Write a sequence for this structure.
């Protein structure tokens, strides 16, 4: 996968749209291993904000900022202002379920 930013905006997310949230995972241990790796989790869009700004150029990135209800095997949590990342899988971001094989 590439982490390039698209030149045109992604479609605006809809309230209650199912998406995937990428968990952060636990911090790496001294040997580089993790107790829990970063992975996709089911999530539901609960709020839609503006297009995200690219951190380097400060131009609109074409990705959206949303609020999410993230569903984990042991419960759920609410994440505010999570940034969409369709072409990468950084912890704390979200992507459409269509762009993932999880």
């Amino acid at each position: 996968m590439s982490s390039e930013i698209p030149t045109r905006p992604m479609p605006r997310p809809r309230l209650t749209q199912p998406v995937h949230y990428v968990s952060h995972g636990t911090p790496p241990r001294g040997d580089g291993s993790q107790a829990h790796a970063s992975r996709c989790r089911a999530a539901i869009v609960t709020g839609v904000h503006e297009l995200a700004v690219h951190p380097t150029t400060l131009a609109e990135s074409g990705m959206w900022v949303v609020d999410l209800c993230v569903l984990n095997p042991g419960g759920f949590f609410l994440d505010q202002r999570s940034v969409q990342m369709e072409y990468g899988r950084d912890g704390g971001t979200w992507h459409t379920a269509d762009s993932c094989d999880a």
